[in-house]
Amino acid sequence: MSGKTDGVTRRSFLKTAGSTMAIASAATQVGNLSAQETGRKTRLAIVGTGSRGTGMWGSPVVRDYADRVQFVGLCDINKKRALVAQRLLGRGVTDQDGHLSDAGGQTVDATEIPVFTDFDEMIRVTNPERVIVTTMDSTHAQYVIRAMELGCDVICEKPFATDEEQCQAIIDAQKKYGRQVTVTFNARYGASTTKVKELLNAGEIGDLYSVDYAEYLDDDHGTSYFRRWHGIKENSGTLLVHKASHHFDQLNWWIGSDPTDISALGELRRFGRKGPFRHANCRLCTQKAECPSYWDITKSKNLVQMYVECESEDGYYRDGCVYRTGVNIYDAMSVQVKYANKVLVTYSLNVGAPCEGQFIVFNGSKGRIELRNYDRQPFEAPAVAEIRLMKNGHKDSQLIPIERRSGSHGGSDRLIRDHVFIPNSPDPMKHKAGSRAGIMSSIIGIAAYRSIERKVPVQVKDLIDISGFEA
Ligand SMILES: NC(=O)c1ccc[n+]([C@@H]2O[C@H](COP(=O)([O-])OP(=O)(O)OC[C@H]3O[C@@H](n4cnc5c(N)ncnc54)[C@H](O)[C@@H]3O)[C@@H](O)[C@H]2O)c1
Asked: What pLDDT score does 13 carry?
C-alpha cells in the first residue's frame, strides 16, 4: 500500500480535485429536505473497507441503525477486501462491541452492497448522501474533499489530515462547499474524559494553567503500529498524528482554546533499522524463534480473510516485520504545546511499556486533577480508571466517581455512532466534532513532527491559515 490512488499521488490528487470538471451533484435531496428530515433512509457509502470500516462503521451500523440508514456502496483500492466487507455487512457479522465475530451474527440484510475500486464511480452510480472515510490516514483528505465536491456530507475517522497541505486543502474546500463534516473522535466520549471536562467546566480547579499528559502503549498494542502501514511516516504522519490526534483533540476540547506554538523531540530506539534482524513479514521469517516481536496472524480467522487472503491485490502485509528498514516513525516522543489562552501542555508518547493507558494532570489556580486511566497493567488487575481532585490548601483529596460502561473503547464507539446516525441527538457536553476540531487536532501532531525534522519550534500560523474557519 503506497499512499497512491490508482496511480495518482496524494498531492496531484489534491491539486486536481479542485479543478476537476464538476460532476452533477450526487446528493439525493428531496427539494431542500434531507433524508433524515423526510424519514427516508439515508444513503451511505464507505471508502476504506478494512477493520475500522467494517467493524466500527459497517456491520454495527447495519445491525443497529437499519431503520435509518442504508449502505449503497463500498469502495477500497483492494477489491478482495471490499468483497470481504460486502459479505460481512450483508450478514451483519459482529459481536456486541462491533468486532468481527467468527461466532456468526444475525442475518440483518441479505442485500449485496455494490463494490467499487474507483471512488468517483461509486458516487456517480450509487448517489450516497453521506460518505464514511476509513482509509489509510494519508488518504483521508483527498476523499473528504472529493466527497464534498460531489455534494456529499462526510463522516471521517481520525486523523483528519497528515500534513499541513492537506489541512489547508480541507479548510478551503469546507469553506467553499459548506457540507456537513463529522470527525469521529471517539476518545472524547470516554467516561473519564467526559468527567474531567465536567470538573473543568464547573471551575473545580479554577483557571487552568497547564496539563501534563503521558500516554503509554504496551508491547502488544504499541508494537502493532510498527507491523502495519502506520510504521511509514508518509502513510500515518507518525504516531504524533495517527495516535496522538485522539489526545490532542481531548486536550483542545478540555482546554477550550487553539494551539499556537509547538516544539517536539522524537526518537526511534527499538523498531525499524534499530532491530536485531529483519524480514518482510512474520509468516515467512526464518528467525521466528529468536524474535521478541514475532506475531502469528494465522491464529485469527478474521485477519486471515481480511488481509492474508487479499495480499495478491496490493502486496500489503498486515503482519509486516517491525524491524523492516522502511519504518521511519518514532517510538518515543515528547511535545510541548502553548495555547492561545496561555495554557501550557507537556505531552509524551512511549511505545513498549509494561502498561497501557494514560496519566494526566491538570494544574489550575485553585487545585489539581489527576487522571489515571490504565486499560492493561501487568501488576494490578483489573484495569484502573481513577480521577482524584485536589484543592489548594486542603489536606485531603477527593476520589471522583466515574461512570462504568461496557463496549468497545469503553462504550465510546456506541455513543459516537448514536450521535452520528440519530439526528438531533442531545449533545450537552459538545462531544460532536467537525472539520475545525479535526484540523486543530491533526495540526499539533504535524507541527510536532515538523519541529522534530527541523529542530526548531513551529507556530501553527506558519503552517495553515484558519482565519474565518468555524465549521
Ligand atoms: N477512532 C478509532 O478508535 C480508530 C481505531 C482504528 C482505526 N481508526 C482509523 O480508521 C482508519 C482505518 O484504519 P484500519 O485499522 O481499518 O486500517 P486497515 O488497514 O484495516 O483499513 C484501511 C483500508 O483502506 C484501504 N485503502 C488504503 N488506501 C486507500 C485508498 N487510497 N483508497 C481507497 N482505499 C484505500 C485499504 O486497502 C484498507 O482496506 C485509519 O484512518 C485509522 O486511523 C480509528
From this structure: 39
CATH number for the domain harbouring residue 220: 3.30.360.10
Q: How remote is the CA of residue 200 from the centroid of ligand 1, in Å?
A: 34
pLDDT at 122 over 50: yes
Where in the sequence is the domain holding 302, given as residue range(s)?
272-314
HSE-CB for 300 with a 13 A CA cutoff: 15
- pTM of structure: 0.91
Asked whether residue 321 is assigned to any structural domain, the reply reads no
Phi, psi torsion values for 258, nearest 5 degrees: -100, 140
Residue 264 near residue 448 (C-beta atoms within 8 A): yes
Quick one: pLDDT band at residue 33, thresholds 50, 70, 90?
low
- φ/ψ (deg, to 5) at 267: -140, 150
266 and 154 within one domain: no
Q: What angle do CA 362, 368, 371 make, to 5 degrees?
A: 60
Same domain as 31, residue 87: yes
In a domain, 95, yes or no: yes
434 near 419, Cβ under 8 Å? no
Confidence of residue 405 (pLDDT cuts 50, 70, 90): confident
405 vs 123, more confident: 123
Strand residues in 92-207 grouped as ranges (E): 115-116, 130-133, 153-157, 181-184
Within-domain flag for 4: no
Whether ligand 1 lies within 6 angstroms of the CB of 53 is answered as: yes
* Total count of domains within the chain: 3
Examine the domain organization and report whether 252 and 129 are in the same domain.
no
Residue type, 51: S
Give the pLDDT of residue 15: 41
352 and 249 part of one domain: yes
Pocket test for ligand 1, best of 74, 77, 88, 135 (most atoms within 8 A of CB): 135
| Ligand 1 atom at minimal distance to the Cα of residue 143 | 32
Pairing of strands 332-339, 259-267: antiparallel
Alpha-carbon Rg of the chain, whole angstroms? 22
Query: How many C-beta atoms surround the C-beta of residue 153 within 10 A?
Result: 17
Is residue 124 located within the same domain as residue 238? no
